[in-house]
Amino acid sequence: MARKRTTLADIADLATVDVPIAGNVLGLSRDSAYEAARRGDIPTLRFGRRLVVPVPRLLELIGASANGNKETE
Length: 73
What we know:
It is built from four helices and three strands, in the order H-E-H-H-E-E-H. By secondary structure, it is an alpha+beta fold. The protein has a domain at 19-62. Strand 2 and strand 3 (50-54) form a beta hairpin. It is globular and about 25 Å long.
């Protein structure tokens, strides 16, 4: 069974998400998301052994606002 795609609206009100969820938003597999995080392509914070992605920085990275809409210039 295919996993449901996580949308920007699903995460917009959260402070952080785990790396696989951030990858899902970006259309990446779990392994690709962790590799992107390791390279620094996805912003992360480490709390002990837990690696999380700050949602505001993820939204900024992809040019979206907190309400999930693309920002216009």
